[in-house]
Specification:
There is one protein chain. The termini are far apart. The protein is built from 15 helices and 29 strands. Helix 1 packs parallel to helix 2, helix 6 packs across helix 8 and helix 14 packs antiparallel against helix 15. The strands form six sheets. An eight-stranded antiparallel sheet has the order 8-7-9-10-21-20-18-19, sandwiched between helices. It has a six-stranded mixed sheet with strand order 1-2-3-4-6-5. The longest helix is centred in the first third of the chain and has 29 residues. The protein is α+β, with helices and mostly antiparallel strands. It folds into five domains: about 220 residues, GHMP Kinase, N-terminal domain (Ribosomal Protein S5, domain 2, 2-Layer Sandwich), CATH 3.30.230; about 70 residues, Arc Repressor Mutant, subunit A (Orthogonal Bundle), CATH 1.10.10; about 220 residues, Ribosomal Protein S5, domain 2; about 60 residues, K Homology domain, type 1 (Ribosomal Protein S8, Chain: A, domain 1); about 60 residues, Nucleic acid-binding proteins (OB fold (Dihydrolipoamide Acetyltransferase, E2P), Beta Barrel), CATH 2.40.50.
């Protein structure tokens, strides 16, 4: 069966082909949006994976360089591990899809998106999100979809749906919204200080657009959808649940979890688990492997009831109360900038490093909008931060995602290259974690940049809100500053970062089938209130504005502009001239195609020497100009002087002294440094210099 479906979406044609390719997958959709082509497939294992207490979903977004007519770089000339952009896109697809699978489903599921052709007018990320929704919805895999996704840009205050690449480059907003039929299920945004009311307008404009796409997908599912297969439920055994809740009354479980110390709570739960294991060791040994999941479910039920019905949080805080905050700067004496931000048991130290622009990160991928990153934010989450032990294997998808979120939040306030010609790297080290470390890293990074003397436009702070819902849409409670337990057992992690004037980043993770408008409005209002408090009452007391100068251990940069036609003179044949300047002065020199030159170093005298060399190389000799040169060659008829690497001139023997000179060596020797004056051009058009006419 091969069927084709089409609709107009944001001024372009979206076409879905079902049954043409990948027939052995549980579901497959061959997606076309303009000239962008993505193959989306959904596959599931026949049996559940044993010994796990989570849904094993894998989402892949595969970038193929042939999609943009490129051959991959490197020696292998083939695609390797997923790029950072591909990982972030996989996460964006995962977040709205995961909540709609059954909670007790343990079969392995893989959603694969193969990007085969890219049209700059049609973003492949949106196509992959729609393809994942369609391929899963028409498959026999249990799924409470479909979802639809729309990207929103904003140019001169006007909202643009699914903006093209040229539009994205000038947009003040990069927003992705995913929806079910009734609710918003995922929000991801980067913004140039967009006000809260404008952000809400954009979110729900995208939600309306998504409803049209969902109606289109429903048509496809109605004609091509397979019956959903039955599966083995991995929910907690009913008899075990009844016995456990009788052995551990609700009051005892409340007492176990009602503490602001994570270690104490974990010890309490471990004690309950040991007691129950001993209880079942003889009569019900088959229940012991299920105890962990059963206790998790019991904790979740207890915490949710305490919060929703009793308005009691595990650590005793009010619903809107933020945990104890602390901020300090300059922890590391020789780092270019450092700051630490603490919120309860969440603690982040961010270190800033400044470097020449040549140290910016070069990107090799499908995204033509960004080929180089001047600002890099990296986030690390070691096992000791949560009291665990495991070897470090490098950053995982979560670490990459948290780093990208903080990076996105801070980019709008960074100075331009012209204002601050540095490559900038911030690294957030998680010292302790108990909820929302990504937002703590934004606060620490903002302070670290200011301590390093980076002239950011405004401070940025971030905070996260949580949610616990009841049986109806209007039965819910929003929590300000969620800790780990409230994140694990709650329904939402709504992260918002921004300045005093607007939002710079949003990331929303939920575990339910979507959020209503009142919940989103309340979460955005709560995060704004919390951001103001954090910036005014905590961050500003540690550092309120960027330092006037960069740290003494940071490299200094002098910029100058030269005629682009003179770049070759400065570089020299095979780089000999510029390399000689670098060797003599110990500086780094970057030159772009427009003739902007950056001289970077820590020794101001050597930096100025390099600048003088460059100015001499690009300057035209003028009559009367006095220069200092070094004797590099002596001939019978005169001496050759080097004024700068690659810039030479000759003094005729008759111009060495006011008195007769028989031999050049009587006046000059190799290596002498002398001052000479330019006499202009001789009869043959050559520049002439004089030693005897220097005044």
């Amino acid at each position: 069966m091969f069927k084709t479906y089409s609709m107009e979406l944001a001024g372009r044609t979206l076409t879905v082909e079902i049954g043409r390719v990948a027939a052995q997958a549980n579901g497959a959709a061959f997606m076309h949006y303009g000239d962008t082509v993505v193959l989306s497939t959904a596959t599931a294992s026949e049996e559940p994976r044993e010994g796990i207490d989570f849904f094993p979903l894998s989402v892949e977004y595969e970038e193929k360089m042939y999609a943009v007519g490129k051959i991959p770089g490197g020696f292998n000339k083939r695609e390797g591990k997923a790029s950072e952009h591909a990982i972030l896109t996989s996460r964006v697809i995962d977040r709205p899809m995961r909540p709609l699978f059954p909670k007790d489903y343990r079969n392995d599921v893989t959603l694969s998106n193969l990007v085969m052709c890219v049209d700059p007018e049609c973003n492949p990320e949106v196509v992959a999100m729609l393809g994942s929704s369609i391929s899963t919805s028409i498959s026999d895999i249990p799924f409470d979809g479909p979802i639809a996704a729309t990207q929103v840009g904003m140019i001169d205050g006007e909202l643009i749906f699914n903006p093209s690449l040229p539009q994205k480059k000038v947009s003040d907003l990069n927003l992705t919204v995913a929806s079910t039929r009734e609710k918003v299920i995922m929000i991801e945004a980067g913004a140039n200080e967009v006000p809260e009311d404008k952000m809400l307008e954009a979110i729900f404009a995208a939600h309306e657009m998504n409803q049209k796409v969902i109606a289109f997908i429903d048509t496809i599912v109605a004609e091509c959808g397979k019956p959903k297969h039955s599966y083995q439920s991995c929910d907690v055994d009913e008899e075990l649940w009844a016995d456990m809740t009788a052995a551990v009354p609700a009051e005892q479980m409340e007492e176990a979890v009602f503490t602001d110390e994570k270690q104490k709570r974990e010890a309490n739960i471990h004690e309950l688990k040991e007691m129950l294991a001993a209880r079942y060791e003889e009569e019900h040994p088959e229940w012991i492997p299920m105890l962990g999941e059963a206790l998790y479910k019991y904790q979740k039920k207890t915490v949710r009831k305490m919060i929703l019905k009793d308005h009691k949080r595990p650590d005793g805080r009010d619903i809107t109360q933020i945990r104890h905050l602390a901020a300090e700067i300059d922890l590391l004496p020789r780092a270019h900038g450092s700051a630490m931000f603490t919120r309860g048991q969440t603690q982040i130290c961010t270190v800033t490093t400044l470097a020449p622009l040549s140290d910016a990160q070069r990107l090799d991928g499908l995204d033509e909008m960004e080929t180089e990153k001047r600002y890099m934010h990296h986030y690390n989450f070691p096992s000791y931060s949560v009291g665990e032990t495991k070897p470090s294997r490098g950053p995982g998808r979560r670490e990459i995602g948290h780093g990208a979120l903080a990076e996105r939040a801070l980019i709008p306030v960074l100075p331009t290259v012209e204002e601050f010609p540095y490559a900038i790297r911030t690294v957030s080290e998680t010292f302790e974690s108990n909820g929302s470390t990504s937002q703590a890293s934004i606060c620490a990074s903002s302070m670290s940049l200011m301590s390093a003397g980076v002239p950011i436009k405004k401070p940025v702070a971030g905070i996260s809100c949580g949610l616990v819902t009841g049986d109806t849409d209007d039965d819910y409670i929003v929590l300000t500053d969620i800790q780990g337990l409230e994140d694990f057992f709650g329904d939402m992690d709504f992260k918002v970062a921004g300045t005093r004037d607007g939002i710079t980043a949003i990331q929303m993770d939920i575990k339910i089938n979507g959020l209503t408008r009142p919940i989103i409005e309340e979460a955005i209002a709560r995060t704004r209130e919390a951001r103001m408090y954090i910036m005014d009452e905590v961050m500003a007391k540690a550092i309120s504005e960027p330092r006037a100068e960069v740290n003494k251990y940071a490299p200094k940069i002098i910029q100058l502009q030269i005629d682009p036609a003179k770049i070759g003179d400065v570089v020299g044949k095979q780089g000999k001239v510029i390399n000689k300047i670098i060797e003599e002065t110990g500086v780094k020199i970057d030159i772009d195609d427009d003739g902007f030159v950056s001289v970077c170093g820590t020794d101001h005298e050597m930096m100025q020497k390099a600048v003088n060399y460059i100015n001499t190389i690009v300057a035209e000799f003028e009559t009367g100009q006095v220069l200092t040169g070094k004797v590099i060659s002596i001939k019978d008829f005169g001496a050759f002087l080097e004024f700068a690497p690659g810039k030479e001139g000759m003094v005729h023997i008759s111009k060495l002294s006011k008195e007769r000179v028989n031999r050049v060596e009587d006046v000059l020797t190799l290596g002498d440094v002398v001052k000479v004056v330019c006499l202009g051009k001789d009869k043959m058009g050559r520049i002439s210099f004089s030693l005897k006419d220097v005044k």
